[in-house]
Amino acid sequence: MQKVNYASIDIGTNTLRLFIAEFEGDKLKPILVKRIITRLGGDFKEDIGMDASSMERTLDALKVFAGIAKGYDAKDIFACATSVVRRSKNKDVFVKRVFDATGIKINVISGDEEAGLALLGVLSVIEWGTDLKSIPKCLVIDIGGGSTEFIAVDKGKMLGSWSMEMGVVHLTEKYLKSDPPTQKELQDMEMEIERTIYDLRFKVFNSELRTPNSELFIGTAGTITTLAAIDLNLEVYEPKKINNYTLTYNAVKKIYNYFTAITLEERQKVLSLEKGREDLIIPGAAIVLKAMESFGFTSMTVSDAGLLEGILIKHLES
Q1: What is the DSSP letter of 307?
Q2: At 207, is the secondary structure helix, strand, or coil?
Q3: What is the pLDDT of residues 210-237, one digit of tens each?
Q4: E strand segments, 56-199
Q5: Domains in the chain, CATH or no CATH each
Q6: Dihedrals phi, psi of 159, to nearest 5 degrees
C-alpha cells in the first residue's frame, strides 16, 4: 500500500506548530512535530490588527516550515489560522503575504471549527477503550494565545462548543505589567477570567445542553501540556508521558503560586517550562484553576494532541 506524507500547520496567537504525518491507507503515523513561538498576537490592536513585526516573525517561521515539509515530500500542506488572525482587520494582507512567500494557503477558521478539529485530535489519543458507550461525558478545554475553546462531548460526539475571547497573550499584555506581578494585577486578571467563565456557564445552562454534567475534564494545547511537563519535572518534552497524564487542581495551584511569586528571569531557569511561555504560564494556569473551580473538577486529563492532528484526521475522513 502506498504511503503518502501530509503536513498540517496551526497558526496560533502565540505558537506556530508544524505536524508531518504519513498516511498508509486510513492510518495516520506521526513523523515530526515542530513548534516555534512567534507571538503573532503580540501588540495586537483592534483598530489595526496584527503588528507588522509580529507578522514578519511568523512569516519567517512559515518559510522554515515550508522548507521542512518539502524535505519530507509532503504531498500537501493544510494550514489553519485561529483567534488573532480571524479577529484582525489586516488578515487578508497577512494571508496573501504568506501565500506569495511560501505557497501555503491559509484557512482562517472560526471558533466552532477550531473546537471541532481540536476535538478530533484529542479523541485520537485519550484512552477509554473502543466502546463508545463506555466513553464518559466530558468537557474539553483548549487554551490558546487569543481565545479559549470549551467543548462538551458525549459518547465521542460534540454536543456543543463555545469560543471565548480569553487568551493568554492578551491577558498577559493587558494585566501583567510588573515583574513579578502585583497582587492587584493578578486579582484584576482573575476577575476577568471569572467573568468570562461565568458567561460561559450561563450560555451552557441556557442551551439545549443545560449543563455539561461531565465526568471527565480534558485539557489540550500548549499551556496545559506545559503545566503537565512542569508537574512531571520533564527536562525534555515527551508526548507519550503527557498524553493521558492526570493533572490535579492542587498541582496547578502550586505551580501558579510559585510562578506568580518569582521573576521572569527566575522562571526562565525552569527547564520544564517551554521557552517563550515564561510570562504566559501565569494567565494559562489561572484559566485552568478558574475553570476547575467553576465546573467542579479536581483533576484534568491531558492531551498532547489537538488541532494539528485534527486537521489531518479531517482530511483523512473526507
Answers
A1: H
A2: coil
A3: 444 567 899 998 899 999 999 999 988 8
A4: 77-81, 106-108, 138-143, 148-154, 157-164
A5: 3-109 (3.30.420.40), 128-308 (3.30.420.150)
A6: -90, -35
